[in-house]
Amino acid sequence: MDEDLIPGLGSTQRDDSDEEIEITAAEVLEKLQEAWNNEKFSPELLESKSDLLECMLDQIKGMEKNLERVKQKNLVATFHKLEIDRIRYVLSSYLRTRLQKIEKHVVHILEQEASRDADEPSRLSPEELQYAKEYADNMESLFKSLVLQHMPPNMQSIDRKKSVPRPNLDSYVFFKVLEDQEQVMIDPEEQPIDLEKGAQHIMRYSAVAPLLANGSIALL
Q1: Which of 85, 125, 160, 203 has its CB 3.0 to 4.6 Å from that of 48, i.e. a possible disulfide?
Q2: What residues does each domain of the chain span?
């Protein structure tokens, strides 16, 4: 991304210790693309990256304002417009992927949210949590009105916890190692292995999910 059209060249983002850190627009975009790929290829819903989304939306607004001030619509301005469109696509695809997962595994996700510890970060943004609750309630109401009310009285109740669709955490994923990892337990029946930075592997998601959560690997 050419940062000449981006005001301030940077944004602030909070890290895990709740401290503000400086981050450039290019770094925000790189992190957003990584989060997008991780979300696309992960079988389960990952932690929301709402801070990245807000940072990137602010950068887009600044870029669009600068483009409006460009009097001559030359080739460079056209390329910047295409770049903005590309970023918007990444943003919308990321959010759409998350909504699809929420709708597919809404009961499971709400169970996780209800059982998580107070110091454990939520996987849902406040807006996503509200959407998940409303979606689950609406689906239950629809099922009752279309099906259950026509069933015998002893079969008109519904238990959300029975036959809940859950993500397949044993599916295989392709990933790249971002940081050296030693003695990683891939299979209880096998010896731990070392993962070298830059190496690429295919393994069960359940074995490497903790590494994905702490940013040691990226899905491809």
Answers
A1: 125
A2: 25-167, 168-219
